[in-house]
Amino acid sequence: MNRFIRLVDGLAAASLFFVAAFTLLAVAGRKFFGWSPPDYFDFARLALGIALFWGIGAACYGNRHILVDLVHELASPTWKRRIDLVATAILAVFMGVLAWVTGADVAKTMTATVRTTELRWLVWPFHAVAAAGLAAGFVLTCVRLVRLWRGTGLDT
Fold first, then answer.
1. How many CA atoms lie within 13 A of 16 on its CB side?
2. Contact 109/118 with Cβ under 8 angstroms?
3. Beta bridge partners of 115
4. How far is CA 80 from CA 70, 76, 93, in A?
5. Which DSSP symbol is given to 63?
6. Is 76 in a helix, a strand, or coil?
7. CA 127 to chain centre
8. Measured distance CA(145)–CA(82) in Å, rounded
9. What's the CA gap between 31 and 91, in Å, rounded?
10. Quick one: DSSP state of residue 115?
11. Spatial distance between the Cα atoms of 5 and 9, rounded to a whole number of angstroms
12. What integer pLDDT is reported at residue 145 of this predicted model?
């Protein structure tokens, strides 16, 4: 399971690196050569979506999202565990629904044959990779929920 968790983290980081590298290429090309890569905006947008969805998946398991909760901080360890269980269960439901809806959107994009502007590449494979990130996030959130329920350590 830890290998899967590292894979999710790595895919999120790699796609974010791709966004940064592609942006650097586009800016340098425009500044020094008067040239912009074809479909720069489309590819950067699609890669950013992939990075966000895989990053959400990684953050949900590792509990690395924004945490600002005075009640949780003041609670006893027993109540903290209960709050974490309820919050993770709610998060799992929302991640499942979001993964389902995004998967349905991928199917619609596939049948509509949406393409990029200049190179005319199909968009649905990028959407499918992003949706897989949400599905992985749902699985990891469920794993976190089970580990919280059992009281076992959350190894990240």
1. 12
2. no
3. 122
4. 11, 6, 20
5. T
6. coil
7. 12
8. 11
9. 44
10. B
11. 6
12. 93
Strand partners, 122: 115
* CB distance 11 to 64 below 8 Å: no
pTM for the full predicted model: 0.83
- Closest by CA to 136, choosing from 42, 41, 54, 50, is 54
pLDDT band (50, 70, 90) for residue 64: low
Distant-in-sequence, close-in-space partners of 14: CB < 8 Å, separation ≥ 6? none
Residue 59: Cβ within 10 Å count? 17
**Tens digits of per-residue pLDDT, 110-130?**
999 999 989 999 999 999 999
> Which position has the token pair 């269960």?
89
Helix, strand, coil percentages for the chain (3-state, nearest 5): 80, 0, 20
- Beta bridge partners, 93, equal none
What integer best gives the mean pLDDT of the chain? 88
Distance CA 44, CA 15 (A): 10
CA nearest to 91, candidates 133, 129, 51, 139 = 139
Q: Which amino acid is at 142?
A: C
* Backbone angles phi and psi of 133, in degrees to 5: -65, -40
The encoded tokens of residue 132 equal 């897989």
